[in-house]
Amino acid sequence: MYMQNSSRGGNADDENSADVAAKESQKRRVQMELLILDSDKRKLANEKSVLEAEIRKLRQDGERITLITNSKKARYDVVVRESSEKEEELKRLKKKLNTL
Hints:
By secondary structure, the protein is mostly helical. It is 98% helix and 0% strand. It has 1 helix and no strands.
């Protein structure tokens, strides 16, 4: 009888050991998943920072290009106006020359 009880106790210990092993295995899987997700999160955070910096630079470049474009347009308007004035002055002087 003692043998039967001890063997039953052994089965309970085996089941308990199996439960502990299953829980440990599940715990390791969850820990591995946590590590992978944490790594993925860090990679995405780094990519986010890089993209933010690139967007900031592009905005600054856009502002710089806008300033340069406005400056060139202003100069273009001055050149067109001065060219028209010179053309009018040329016509006036040719007309004066023809009258002399």
